[in-house]
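Run folding on both entries below.
>entry_1
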Amino acid sequence: SWQLDCRPTPPATTQSLENLTTRKLVVRKHPEHSDAVIVDTLLVNTGKESRDFPGLLLRFSDINGRTLASRIFQPREYLQGELSSLKSMASQQPIHVVLEIRDPGSQAVNYQMRLVAAKGQNRSR
């Protein structure tokens, strides 16, 4: 007989996200596609050691704080072009992240980005 471990996934350790931050988060209309927006941010590792890339939780909400859309972008999704070969975030090297996503609509007046543990990364460091 098989046994299935149904315990919840442990949350990201504080160490895995320690010293990682986003700066200059901007959401703007896409210049070519009317149903899309462009999300720009800088990821920065302010610590002295390299860190794994985090997941990016992007959330849009209405004027009352209700979530209208949210999604976690994994590093393989947001590290494009020459950045796709990076294995970790070097200390003090800002990484410019640009996401092209579907417009969450005119009711989405607030947005925020949180860093979360990326799927499949070693959390036991």
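>entry_2
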Amino acid sequence: MKEYSFTIQGTMTGLNEYTNACRSNKFQGAMIKATEGMRVKVQARALKGLKLKRVELQFNWYEKNKRRDLDNVAFAKKFVLDALQDLSVIENDGWKNIAGFSDSFFVDKNNPRVEVVLKEVG
């Protein structure tokens, strides 16, 4: 099973922030989605040209502190999956192409980040 990984530096937008942005102005939510997608694409640029049929994803979330709920943090995987689709690394983020996810959470106040590992499955 081949593995590919990349790291997104900093804290990603969570569900609460995204929901509040969408409620306040329809363009704010779109701006967040575009900005987060671009962050992912820049960090995953080494995967461009790679075409994976079916993958499992491991997300290692490193937060500055424990203030945000875990489900709020992990919501950002939506931005990651959409960016991987835009890069054509995965064809789609549906059942056919995604075998599953796993999430692990850590605190690193000096270096918040998201480490993403894609494992190609048969």
